[in-house]
Amino acid sequence: ARWTVQDGWAESSVLPYGPLQLSPAAAVLHYGQEIFEGLKAFRHADGSVWTFRPEANAERMQRSARRLALPELSAEDFLASLRALTAADEPWVPEPTGEESLYLRPFMFASEEFLGVRASHTVDYYVIASPAGPYFPRGVQPLVVWITDEYARAGAGGTGAAKCGGNYASSLLARRQAVENGADEVLFLDSETHTGIDELSGMNVFAITRDGRVLTPSLTGSILEGVTRASVLRLAQDRGLEVAEQRLVMSEVLEQLDSGEITEMFACGTAAVITPIGSFMAHGGTWTVGDGGSGETTLALRKELTDIQYGRIPDRHGWLTRLV
Ligand code: PMP
């Protein structure tokens, strides 16, 4: 589908997957004016296909669009695009045997041909769909997380709260360094003081204390407002756990891991759902979370979330929207 700022929707269609026609001077290639979203389509046992909280993704895409000087797509058009593509790709939505889904990637970028720094007047919007296997084909495995003391993902007043390609461009080197150091993922600290936990390169972070409090960094403007994060906060509350969005100082968290005050940590996002963090690494050493395995509350939250998504338990919060 193609959208231009002056004309609204110029055309809207489902096309076979293939390369795009783009001018070498398309603004996105030079100035990074691009945003995206990530959702999943889940098949239920009766064959119907559903997605999870798409209105939250639509709203986030609108916020990202405002920050990147792109036009806002209405929630109706956003949902219509997901429905049209999922209907066409319906045979590709996996059977609900494991944790398989159809990943949906809406994205919008500046396609106007010019060299010069200003917002583009012409914008393209597309959605691609791709079958996604379980994130952990051999069962849930705790992550080893590298704490970067060198790179920040986002700065104050920057684009950290937007889901734009540039944020990921700035995280790639840190993530590669994490992998070279033997970790699975990188954790970014806040760029103001370099002391508070922000998030991983594609997931929000939670800690659970021995006395059952569920903690996650507050939305300071430099982390992404994850849909999974919001859902986990709600599910934890439903379980009678005390939840708090607050500044989490990395050094204090590491001390609380050593003292056993914090017993579980996990990362969450659409792709990885809820993933235990088994240990942290940094230049100063390594820290194990709990016994290094998967925490009980983490796994219970993960099961409840996926049970809702696959229609195995009632959708008591009205989080599911039928696509096909
Ligand atoms: N933080 C970042 C940087 C991400 O890329 C993602 C994935 N979209 C998340 C957090 C988690 O967001 P969500 O739960 O909406 O997928």
From TrEMBL:
Instruction: Check the record and name the CDD domains matching this protein.
Output: BCAT_beta_family (cd01557)
The UniProt keyword set, sorted, is: Amino-acid biosynthesis, Aminotransferase, Branched-chain amino acid biosynthesis, Pyridoxal phosphate, Transferase
Domain of life, source organism: Bacteria
Cite the GO molecular-function annotations of the record: branched-chain-amino-acid transaminase activity
Residues bearing the modification N6-(pyridoxal phosphate)lysine:
K163
Q: Which InterPro entries match?
A: Aminotrans_IV, Aminotrans_IV_CS, Aminotransferase-like, B_amino_transII, BCAT-like_C, BCAT-like_N, BCAT_family
Q: Give cofactor(s), names only.
A: pyridoxal 5'-phosphate
Q: Does the record bear Transport in its keywords?
A: no
The EC number of this protein is: 2.6.1.42
| Keyword Iron carried by entry | no
Involved pathway(s) = Amino-acid biosynthesis; L-isoleucine biosynthesis; L-isoleucine from 2-oxobutanoate: step 4/4; Amino-acid biosynthesis; L-valine biosynthesis; L-valine from pyruvate: step 4/4; Amino-acid biosynthesis; L-leucine biosynthesis; L-leucine from 3-methyl-2-oxobutanoate: step 4/4
What are its GO biological-process terms?
isoleucine biosynthetic process; L-leucine biosynthetic process; L-valine biosynthetic process
Under the heading Gene3D superfamilies, the entry gives: 3.30.470.10, D-amino Acid Aminotransferase, subunit A, domain 2
Per its record, the protein catalyses: L-leucine + 2-oxoglutarate = 4-methyl-2-oxopentanoate + L-glutamate; L-isoleucine + 2-oxoglutarate = (S)-3-methyl-2-oxopentanoate + L-glutamate; L-valine + 2-oxoglutarate = 3-methyl-2-oxobutanoate + L-glutamate
Checking Pfam families in the record gives: Aminotran_4
Family, per the entry?
Belongs to the class-IV pyridoxal-phosphate-dependent aminotransferase family.
Please identify the protein, giving its name as recorded. Answer: Branched-chain-amino-acid aminotransferase
